[in-house]
Specification:
Helix content is about 80%, strand content about 0%. The protein has 11 helices and no strands.
C-alpha cells in the first residue's frame, strides 16, 4: 500500500468510527456490539498472523503488555460505546483528540521524558477551555449527556494511560501480534460485561445498521485502519501523522449531523474549534517559534 493511500485510509477510518459505534448500538447492546467487533477482528487477525508467520508470544512481559493494552481496548472503547448512546457521535472523535496531550503529560511522569515547553502547556489550557465551553452548552448540558461526557473523559484518560504503559513495557512484539493478542483477551471481558449489563440473547436484525456497523468496524476500524496507521508511522514524521487528529473530528461531527440527525449547536462548534486550536499549538507551536526566531 502506498503511503498516501494508507494516510487517506486512516483519515477515513478514524472519521467514520464514531458514527459506526453509534450505529452498532442501534439494535444491539453496546457491550455486545463491541465484543462482536473484537471477536471478528481477533479471528481475522489471527488468520493474518498465521499467514504472515508472525510469532505470537505469551510470556510474562508480553502478557503485561497485553494487559495494559486491555486498559485501552476494553476500558476506553467500552466506555466509548456506552457514551455513544448518550452524546453526539462526533464528540467521541473530538474528545479522543485530547489523547496526544494527555499522553505527553503522562509520559513525563511514567517515562521520565523531558518537561514540556511552555507553549504545550498553553495548548493544554486552550483545549481545557474548549472542554469547558462544551460542558456549559445549554443544548448538551443534560443529565444524560453529562454522564456521557464523563464516560468519554475517563475513556480518553484510560486510552492515554494504556498507550504510555504499553510503550513503557516495551515487549518488542510485532504490532499485529500485539493487537491480535490483546483483541483475543478482550473478548471474554466484553462477554462478561454484556452478560452482567444485559444478558438477553440478541436477535440480529439485518435490516438495521447495527450488524453492518459491527462488520465495518471489525474489518476496517480494527484491522485495515490499524495496519495503515502503523504503515504511515514508519514513513512519515510524527507531526504529519498528528494532523489526522485535527482533521477527523471535523469530519466526524458533520457525518453525525448528516447521517444520524445529530445537532450541531454553536457552542459545540466553538468548543470543538478551541480544542482543535489547542492541538495545532501543541503539535506545531515549536515550528512556529523556530520560524519567528529565524525571522527575528
Amino acid at each position: 500500500m502506498s503511503v498516501p493511500a494508507a494516510y487517506l485510509t486512516v483519515v477515513l477510518v478514524w472519521a467514520t468510527t464514531p458514527i459506526g459505534i453509534a450505529f452498532s448500538g442501534a439494535t444491539l447492546h453496546p457491550m455486545l456490539a463491541a465484543g462482536l467487533r473484537m471477536l471478528i477482528a481477533a479471528v481475522l487477525g489471527a488468520v493474518l498472523v498465521k499467514l504472515l508467520r508472525i510469532p505470537m508470544c505469551w510470556r510474562a512481559r508480553e502478557l503485561k503488555s497485553h494487559g495494559w493494552a486491555l486498559v485501552g481496548i476494553f476500558g476506553a472503547l467500552g466506555l466509548s460505546y456506552m457514551a455513544a448512546q448518550r452524546v453526539p457521535s462526533g464528540l467521541i472523535s473530538v474528545f479522543f483528540g485530547l489523547s496526544p496531550m494527555l499522553s505527553a503529560i503522562l509520559a513525563q511522569w511514567l517515562l521520565d521524558e523531558p518537561a514540556m515547553p511552555l507553549y504545550k502547556w498553553a495548548a493544554c489550557l486552550l483545549a481545557l477551555f474548549g472542554l469547558a465551553v462544551l460542558f456549559l452548552d445549554d443544548v448538551l448540558l443534560t443529565a444524560d449527556m453529562l454522564g456521557g461526557f464523563v464516560m468519554l473523559l475517563v475513556a480518553v484518560l484510560l486510552f492515554s494511560v494504556s498507550a504510555v504503559m504499553v510503550k513503557r513495557t516495551d515487549a518488542q512484539m510485532h504490532p499485529l501480534a500485539q493487537t491480535v493478542g490483546s483483541l483475543i483477551l478482550s473478548v471474554p471481558l466484553f462477554a462478561v460485561a454484556w452478560w452482567l449489563m444485559d444478558g438477553q440473547m440478541p436477535v440480529i436484525d439485518w435490516a438495521s445498521p447495527s450488524p453492518w456497523a459491527v462488520l465495518y468496524l471489525a474489518l476496517f476500524g480494527s484491522l485495515l485502519g490499524f495496519v495503515s496507521y502503523y504503515h504511515i508511522l514508519r514513513y512519515l514524521a510524527p507531526t504529519t501523522v498528528a494532523l489526522i487528529t485535527l482533521v477527523t473530528p471535523v469530519f466526524a461531527l458533520y457525518l453525525g449531523f448528516w447521517f444520524n440527525d445529530e445537532e450541531l449547536s454553536p457552542a459545540m462548534l466553538q468548543g470543538t474549534g478551541l480544542i482543535m486550536a489547542g492541538l495545532v499549538v501543541f503539535f506545531f507551536g515549536g515550528l512556529l517559534r523556530k520560524r519567528l526566531r529565524a525571522t527575528a
